[in-house]
Each structure stands twice: as C-alpha cells, then as structure tokens.
Design goal:
By secondary structure, the chain is α/β, with parallel strands linked by helices. It has helices spanning 13-24, 31-41, 44-55, 61-72, 90-98, 113-122, 162-176, 178-185, 198-209; strands at 2-6, 28-30, 81-84, 105-110, 123-125, 132-134, 189-193. Bound molecules: adenosine-5'-diphosphate (ADP) (2 copies) and zinc ion.
C-alpha cells in the first residue's frame, strides 16, 4: 500500500504512522524526520533547512523532493510506504505523479486548531530515534521523559513552541490544506476525525484502511 497521511501539524500523523507501519510492515517516510536528521548531521542541506524550519515555514519544494526521491527508491519501499508530512504543496503532489508513483489512499486526520495548540505544547520527541510522545495523552511507558524505544532523554522540538506552532498552522491552511480538494478530485481522500484518545483514533484509522486489529 502506498499511503499518504495527511493533516495539520500535530494531527497525529507520526503516531498513527508508527502503528500502521507495524501492522502492514511497510516503512514510514517522514520528510520532517529526514530534515531533522540532516540538521543533526550538520550537512549542507541541514544548514539550509534549519533556519527555515525554526520559523515554521516550508522548506523549498526542490530540496524536499530531492531527499524524498532517494528515500523512495530504497529497497524497503518496494512493497509500499506511508508518507508522513509529504506532499505539503500542490507542486510536491504533482512531483509524485511525475515520478510515476501511484498513491492508493490519502488518509486525512481532522483535528481543529485549538486541539492542535494543546497537543503541540505537550508533545515530546526523541532526538535519537524520532519517536513521539505526549506528556498527558501518550506518555512513555517505561521511564518518565525517556524514550521507550531507545532510552534517550525526550525533548520539546524548537518548532513546537507556541509562537512557531501558530505560524505552522497558518502555513498549513494556506499552502497544504488545498491538497485535500486535489486528492478528493482524484477519488483518493478518506477522512478520520481525530479522537481525544490515541487508541480510539487508531481504531477509526484501521477501520478506514481495512486493517485487521
Ligand atoms: P509535523 O509532524 O508537526 O507536521 P514535520 O516534522 O512534518 O512536522 O515538519 C517539520 C518542519 O519540516 C515543517 O514545519 C517544515 O518546515 C519542514 N518540512 C517537513 N516536510 C516538508 C515538506 N514536505 N515540504 C516542505 N517543508 C517540510
Ligand atoms: P503529527 O505527526 O501529525 O505532527 P504527532 O503524531 O506527533 O502528530 O502527534 C502530535 C502530539 O499529539 C504528540 O504529542 C502525540 O503524542 C499527541 N497525540 C497524537 N494522537 C493523539 C490523540 N488521538 N489524542 C491525543 N493526543 C494525541
Ligand atoms: Zn528513541
């Protein structure tokens, strides 16, 4: 299955992506995670992206498309993948088509702006492996403030601070949300209303995708 997880920042794409990835045994491909890895490694691309991401704006299409193309060509993407955070603009979606990649489904997670602000303020991320938690809704199960997967100390992402979150939401409504109509027009769009509990959202996601529990 070639799936796009769509929704505003903080809608739960990463969280649901991890669960779908485990259930279907296909990788999650997150452009945000790849960009953060490039920043950590200090590559030229990372340096270019860092100051843009700090403001909540989008990294230029050609930069993101460049890293995505290489990733999708990898062996583990052969049987399908879950795109988290890509495409974010109409030109990015058109690039997927130009590459001959046929998407099976675009699953949109519907979450209102007020809820997003609350979720982002409590989001904690693993700087080492990228796993995502929430201080109230999805705390680590083993040790407070340490990643269940790799043990690293969890952090708040710089762009999850309230001022930046507001800008990211504006950018989402202006540049990314029009993709909903784009994919609806292609008959690929399915919507799930995000629920207050992660498990409840997962149930609706599995139902929408026809995945057995
Ligand atoms: P979230 O998970 O909160 O939606 P991401 O990790 O997907 O955030 O993205 C973090 C930042 O990385 C974005 O605000 C943007 O600056 C950059 N970014 C990620 N994916 C893309 C993309 N497809 N196009 C442009 N910029 C992107
Ligand atoms: P995205 O990848 O779309 O930016 P995340 O999956 O990182 O979103 O989720 C954003 C924050 O909200 C995280 O802290 C996550 O633990 C939390 N979260 C995710 N899904 C839910 C849910 N259904 N209810 C409450 N909090 C959630
Ligand atoms: Zn980790």
């Amino acid at each position: 299955m070639k799936l796009i997880l769509f929704g505003p920042p903080g809608a739960g794409k990463g969280t649901q992506g991890e669960l779908i990835s485990a259930a279907l045994n296909i990788p999650t491909v997150s452009t945000g995670a790849m960009l953060r890895a490039a920043i950590k490694e200090g590559t030229e691309l990372g340096k270019q992206a860092e100051s843009i991401m700090a403001t909540g704006a989008l990294v230029p299409d050609e930069v993101v498309v460049g890293i995505l193309k290489d990733r999708l060509a990898a062996e583990d993407c052969k049987n399908g993948f879950i795109l988290d955070g890509f495409p974010r603009t109409i030109p990015q979606a058109e690039t997927l088509e130009a590459l001959g990649i046929q998407i099976d489904c675009v699953l949109s997670l519907e979450v209102p702006d007020e809820t997003i602000i609350e979720r982002m303020s409590g989001r904690r991320s693993c700087p080492q492996c990228g796993a995502t938690y929430h201080v109230v809704y999805n705390p680590p199960k083993k040790l407070t403030s340490q990643c269940d997967v790799c043990g690293a100390v969890l952090k708040q992402r710089d762009d999850d601070k309230p001022e930046v979150v507001k800008n990211r939401l504006n950018v989402y409504h202006k540049e990314t949300e029009p993709l909903k109509a784009y994919y609806e027009g292609k008959g690929l769009l399915k919507s799930v209303v995000g629920q207050p509990q992660v498990e409840e959202t997962s149930r609706l996601v599995r139902e929408a995708l026809g995945i057995e529990a």
